[in-house]
Amino acid sequence: MDVLLAHSPVLIIAIPLLGAFLTPLISRVSDKGRDVLVIATLVFVEFLVIILAVDIYLGGLHIYALGASSPLLARPEHHMAPVRIVLEVDAMSILMGFISATVSLAAAIYSVSFMRRDTGKDKFYTLLLLLTAGMMGLEFTGDMFNLFIFLEILSLSGAALASFRTGFVDALEGGFKYMFISAVASLMILFAVGIFYGQYNLLNIAALAQAIQYTTLDKIALALLIMAFIMKLAGVPLHMWAPDTYSVAPAGTTPMIYVASQACMYALFRVCFTLYGVTLNTLTIGWIVIGIGLLSMFVGVTMAVYQSDIKRLMAYHAVSQSGYMLLGVGVGLAVLSDSQALSTYGRQAMGGGIFHIINNAMYKGLLFLTAEALFYALGTRDLNKMGGIGGNMRYTCVFFMIGALAISGIPPFNGFASKLLIYESVYQFNPMLSVVAMMVSIMTLASFVKVFQSAFTGPISPHVRAVKEVPKPMLGGMGILAAIIVFFSLFPGLIMDQIVEPAVEALINQGTYMNGIMGGMS
Amino acid sequence: MTQCISNIPFLAVAALIGTGLSIIVFNRNLIKLVMGITVLEAGVNLFLVGLGYRQDGGVPIYTNACHTNMVLPVPQALTLTSIVIGVAITAFMLSMIMVIYRHTGHIDAKRSRTLKG
Amino acid sequence: MMASPSGCWGPVPWIIATVVSVVMACLIRTRGQKGHKRGVQGEAFLMGNKMLPEHRSHVRAHNIYWGFFQGLKRYYAQATTMHTGIVNDYIIWFLTFLSITLIVVFALELL
Fold first, then answer.
1. Is the ipTM of this complex over 0.85?
2. Whole-angstrom Cα distance, residue A281 to residue A110?
3. N or C: which end of chain C has fewer CB within 10 A?
């Protein structure tokens, strides 16, 4: 058990990778065996994430140096700087890791029956596990260059999953757009990494954070990194790939691609808070993040209300919800160098934003899955052709309602808890921001009323006859996420104190992250 | 003079990145877009290699080293990794374009936009 | 319970309130007329017009917020034309915002 715990940071990345390459082999023997292997892999990853999380909350951050005689030996002897590939997992990383593991597990269970009619499933599951490995790596890495590599793994497998159904030309187009913007964004990130290396001869995030001077070149690197990550996380106006890609990706993979973009948001926060920290002009950068957040919230939701394609509607909501997180954490970033404002409302705003990340991954994942369940049962994504299926698809209807109420911030669901924190703390920073946030929340509710009214209520539409409930594994996948939502709703205080607070602390306290690797050095 | 010469790789980097971006922005042909990505990537790779170069530096092999002045090995490792990733991405995008062409009969970014609004 | 800047918040009172209101709604519903039969007391009507057949009376998705969309027609025309769907334009947006960020980051240092 101790050995497992000590090696868990690398196992969490290595096991999905191993599973990914075993999948096609097992697939030749038996299809059932492959499904079992994929789900067992993800369950094991989830288990490792949970034991690692417990240890991190109790005993502080974990580091893992690859290739060293002991995993804790980040710096070789007689070396001033860490030269090995280092994984560094703190409370913020493990929170994102938990999200990725859970959503991947739910998505894999869901896909088992969703993909029943498709061929080439061995490749599908390989890509699914690769995407999981990519996300985990991006979240756990302590090294700028590995961040780029895992970002590429994530983009490549995400784009391949989005365009998995090559029989549909729109799926290919969505996948191509995702791959294209990812390629440009990751090259910009690589360029920024090159700038850092040229100045400091370092790649390790902790060592860079200690050395960084905020020179002219660092400013260029900062702008490149911020915009590249905002492009990857779909902040308006760089969001346009998101509705195109999310609306065509097959079932279970939509929440995964969404969570992958959340992982890019984590990378953005890691760069702003841990790499640059107080050396940057926090107010300016904070306002850039807040501005993108406000635009995302407003444009995302107004476009969502307008859509009549159910998955496109959900995709625009994903854009709009990312805005809340950028707003909350952006306010924290803006007041980072002002310790009084930080303790009065900055921490709360960041807590709200981070709580929203974990809440949102769960209910947005659930909503994407219900949208796909409707597509599976009805064969159409067009809301105009739906109607009156609530009676035939009872469980899907209940899951949809849980997700919709949570995302619209209706108490007592968890969406309300995180939104309340954001409203109250952002109000003290600038009242107009919380007015916009509340208005967006109302429009979110309006658009989900639209979906509920047109899909589930009313007389059965002549376009859809003989609708049956979706198969059990699909309900199981949705059920996992719904159960987590209900749990978070019932115990918001517990989640806030035990999971979110340490994550906020990890982002604010740059020193803890640096000491993890550079400990004992002046 | 040496200052001038040591800046030439970076001028080439700027030229490559500028060319790559202008191809990406102004060309509507999907295959040419992929070419743009490749040129951009070449620029970034050259940047990485250029960073590691030291004037009159030798090969960074420590066994029986005859130079004390060596070029940095790390950027070369990074470039190698990045080239491998680049090949994967180029191949993947080209294969996607191939299937798009089979479906629609054209490879024009302007005409391949069923998803919009 | 969860601490928030102006006090604290917990879901329990809300759950109790929801349960109480559902129970009350059920109680009121049970007091309705048991012997009601469809059609005996006349057909349902809307402003004196004859009701449409059932499958046509359902308001379809795109008509639900018709007035709202009509009011914001110009915004929506603008927003949908901006989302061209051409992949080059996405990169143009990226480069535009990259340069804006660079200008902001450098300009504010000079002030």
1. yes
2. 45
3. C
The residues pairing with A421 across neighbouring beta strands, listed in sequence order, are: none
Q: Which residue of A has its CA nearest to B88?
A: A156
Kindly give the residue spans of alpha helices, DSSP state H, lying in chain B: 2-26, 30-52, 73-104
- Strands C7-9 and A86-89 come out as unpaired
CA distances from A54 to A120, A459, A489 (A): 38, 50, 21
CA distances from A420 to A117, A292, B78 (A): 43, 20, 45
Q: How many interchain CB pairs under 8 A, A with B?
A: 81
Q: How many CA atoms lie within 13 A of A191 on its CB side?
A: 27
Min CA distance, C102 vs chain B (Å)? 17
Q: Taking Cα atoms as reference points, which of B91, B94, B86 lies closest to residue B30?
A: B94
Tokens of B59: 């090969």
Q: What share of chain C is helix, strand, coil (3-state, %, to 5)?
A: 60, 5, 35
Place of tokens 């097992």: A26
| CA dist., res. B31 & res. A340, Å (int) | 55
How far is the C-alpha of A365 from the C-alpha of B117, rounded, in Å? 23
- Residue B113, sorted as left (phi over 0), alpha (psi -120 to 50) or beta, turns out to be beta
**Plot region of A60 (φ>0 → left; ψ -120 to 50 → alpha; else → beta):** left
**pLDDT tens per residue, range A507-517:** 998 888 888 88
CB contact under 8 A, A177 and C87: yes
- The Cα–Cα gap between A153 and B89 comes to 10
| Residues 6+ away with beta carbon under 8 Å from A343 | none
Per-residue pLDDT tens digits for A411-459: 889 889 899 999 999 999 999 999 999 999 999 999 999 999 888 887 7
Q: Which residues 43-82 in chain B show a CB within 8 A of chain A?
A: 44, 47-48, 51, 72, 74-75, 78, 81-82
**CB-based contacts of B21, cutoff 8 Å, min separation 6:** B36, B40, C91, C95
Sign of CA dihedral A281, A282, A287, A289: positive
Helix (H, G, I), strand (E, B) or coil at A458: coil
Measured CA to CA in angstroms, residue A448 lies from A405, A451, A507 at distances of: 8, 5, 34
CB distance A222–C10 less than 8 Å? no
Please tell me the pTM assigned to this model. Answer: 0.93
| Rounded-to-10 torsion of CA A86, A89, A90, A93 | 120
Choose from B23, B31, B72, B92 for mutation: most chain A CBs within 10 A: B92
